[in-house]
Amino acid sequence: MQKFLVVCSGSSITLLEKSPTEINKHAGIGGVILFTAILAALSSGYALYSVFDSIWSAVGFGILWGLMIFNLDRFIVASMRKSGNFFRQFFAATPRIILAALLGIVISKPLELRIFEKEIDKQLNVIINRNKTMLQDSVNFRYTQLSGSFTNERNEIYNRINSLRNEYNSASSELEKEVVGTATETTTGKVGYGPNAKRKEELKQAKKEELEGYIAQMQPRLGELDKEVDNLSTQKQKELDAAKPTEDNYTGFAARMQALSELSKNNEILGLASLFIMGVFISLEMAPVLVKLISPKGPYDYLLDKHEYSFKIFGWESKEKMDVSSDERVTIHRKRSDRRIREEM
């Protein structure tokens, strides 16, 4: 197990065997990398299960993501070198620290969704109802504008009909008062059917004919307007039924992330808990890099520098030997050419 954890840390077992005091440190770094990869696999598996709704796809992609995180963390830690002063090392490790923080955020979010699943489900219902209201208001506003001209024209016709009907009713009332003998500004106050009553009856008949004529004239147009308004109302209802969000089509990963974001803003305790969970995963992801950054240079680092430097020296010597050999071959070839020329001369 110790050797396996050392392999997970990206360190050389051969060099660590020469410096046994460093084995526990590198095994601990390898353990953090291993368990971070396992948590990443679980996190991505849950996230992908909420997307694909297939356990086998989620398991496959989760394992693939965990292996990728494992290899990336192993490379980040193994590529760090203890050379130069602290500030130089920190400057070199800054991109690795930023990358580790981003990976910690990515790993923590799906697990946060799982931890706060019950609260998120309740918030999803709130979001669904809010979206329904917003959709209804938007569609109603748009169709109100579309049907505005038809509705206004129809209202003008009905207003005109009501005005004519009121004039007819007023004429009927004036005729009745004239016949009964009710004294007003427009009646004589004499009982019976006289000339003034006859004129009022003629006015009443004229108003009746005008009302009936206008109704008969506008009836086809009212039918067309009612049909247009009914068609728009039917289209509006179909659009509302087809586009309104439901619990079945609004439970994806993005919707849950939106619900978690709103819960974090509205609930301080939940927001603080979410922040701490994310901080824990960021700390786990950054721990190997920070441990290697702040730890003093140990025997393993000196052995690694010596091992790499020996390869540099070997490379330089090989290059020098190749250069010397090449120069010798050139010199020999030149001498042979000169000798051949002299012999020919």
From TrEMBL:
UniProt keyword Membrane present: yes
InterPro entries associated with the record: DUF4407
Keywords linked to the UniProt accession: Coiled coil, Membrane, Transmembrane, Transmembrane helix
Name of a matching Pfam family: DUF4407
Extent of the signal sequence: none
Regions crossing the membrane: 27-49, 55-77, 89-107
Keyword Membrane: yes
Residue ranges of coiled coil: 154-242
Name the record gives this protein: DUF4407 domain-containing protein
Annotated organism of origin: Moheibacter sediminis
